[in-house]
Design brief:
39% strand, 4-stranded antiparallel beta sheet, mainly beta, 12 strands
């Protein structure tokens, strides 16, 4: 709507943030982003950052401990797991929802995406997924899990991060 010269208004917005790693962030507000309102010499005021920082935390996965969670179709969830170097890290996502198509992506030091990851799921269109990092770096790995599709909007799932001893995990003729 219209706003008188030098006028102000206050509004609130509930929004889902994109997957990000732990840290402090500022929100940026950009009114008239397409420059559709003529403002004469005052065009430079169409950008402002929040005065206070937004502290983002990421839930931690503990090695060897199963985390119970709920997946929602189309919603990404991010977790963080800290490991030592030169380990083999396996992440397992399991659910009783057989007709779901789930995804799991893993990346060292930053949040993974479908385009940037160190490891990803191996069985497209399957409910249960596993991702494997054969040799880890010491530090934090971020894990993104997502229900790509499911007959129900939300369903129960478990996520487990574990380091593996030297072993054979699969044989393919």
């Amino acid at each position: 709507g219209s706003l008188a010269p030098d006028g102000t208004y206050t509004s609130t917005l509930d929004a889902v943030l994109p997957p990000v790693k732990e840290g402090q962030y500022r929100l940026v507000v950009r009114p008239d982003i397409f420059n559709e309102v003529y403002e004469g010499p005052n065009e430079a005021n169409n950008f402002s950052a929040s005065p206070d920082v937004l502290n983002i935390t990421v839930p931690e996965l503990r090695l060897g401990v199963v985390l119970d969670t709920t997946l929602e179709t189309g919603v990404s969830q991010v977790y963080r797991v800290r490991v030592e170097g030169n380990e083999t890290l396996r992440l397992s996502l399991t659910t009783p929802e057989r007709d779901a198509a789930n995804e799991i992506f893993v990346r060292y030091g930053d949040v993974p995406s479908a385009f940037e990851f160190a490891a990803t799921f191996q069985n497209p269109l399957q409910a249960n997924q596993t991702a494997l990092i054969p040799t880890t770096q010491a530090g934090d790995y971020y894990v993104l899990v997502r229900a790509q599709s499911s007959p129900t909007q939300s369903f129960a799932a478990t996520l487990k991060a574990e380091t593996l001893p030297f072993q054979i995990t699969d044989v393919t003729p």
